[in-house]
Amino acid sequence: MMEKEELVADWIAFCEGKKNVDESHFYTLFHGGTTANELEKIFSYFDQGNALISKMQQLFEPLSTEKFLGDYPLESNRISQDELVDLVKKDLSEKKRLCEKLGNTEFIALIDSAKIQYVDDADVFKDNPDDIPHYWIDELIGDHFIDQRLDWEPKTVAIFEAFYGLVTDYALVWFLAAPLIKTDFNPEFYFRIWKGGGHYLLAEEGVFVRHVH
Fold first, then answer.
1. What's the start-to-end Cα distance of the chain, in Å?
2. Does residue 180 contact residue 47 with C-beta atoms inside 8 Å?
């Protein structure tokens, strides 16, 4: 892995047109913690820089971005079962709203008919295949976000790479990259589920909710 200082220098040269590298070169841009000064340098090339820094700070809070090394969310952020289930309902409602906007009646029906169940058994999640409604809807949202990017400049493509390299979860990328996307979809509920130590899956049998931290 490249030294952080060297990678940030590459980013600056890349954004200023002085270095030509593939956007994936910046996959580890946020690995190993990122100082406030580094964040300012990285996001100074975006008109939405302050909003993007705010998203990063929300991700790391209560830790500083510099101390973040990947062990997250913290146990102290864990929310109650009732709070978790309520956030899942709100996230599903937000996904339904986007499905309505995009005219996907099949996914609307799946969300409407799903019964929410809180479970302690992690095997319920392990036994579910990848081909379930949860991922179908996520793919629809992902396509929407791609279609609604404000631009396709190399730096924008690269920062999406860096966001995914940090969180390895596209739903969290939507949260971090929201200032760069023209949409009224609100990824905040999923973010709060994740930060509160929760997770859920929408399967044909229902919605399974659990704490993972």
1. 29
2. no
The pTM for the full model equals: 0.90
pLDDT confidence of 69, banded at 50, 70, 90? very low
User: How many Å apart are CA 156 and CA 154, to the nearest integer?
Assistant: 5
Q: The tokens of 18 are what?
A: 């002085």
**Interior angle at CA 72, CA 93 and CA 31, nearest 5:** 110
pLDDT tens sequence across 10-49: 999 999 999 999 999 999 999 988 888 999 999 999 999 9
pLDDT tens column, 91-106 = 999 999 999 999 999 9
- Cβ 79 vs Cβ 191: under 8 Å: no
> 73: cis peptide before it, omega within 30°?
yes
- Round to whole Å and give the CA distance between 3 and 93: 43
Do the Cβ atoms of 184 and 98 come closer than 8 Å? no
Beta-carbon contacts of 174 under 8 Å, excluding residues fewer than 6 positions away, are 141, 142, 145, 181, 185, 187, 190
- Decide the pairing of beta strands 198-203 and 116-118: unpaired
Give the CA angle between residues 7, 8, 11 to the nearest 5°: 90
Distances (CA, A) of 70 to 29, 67, 94: 13, 9, 28
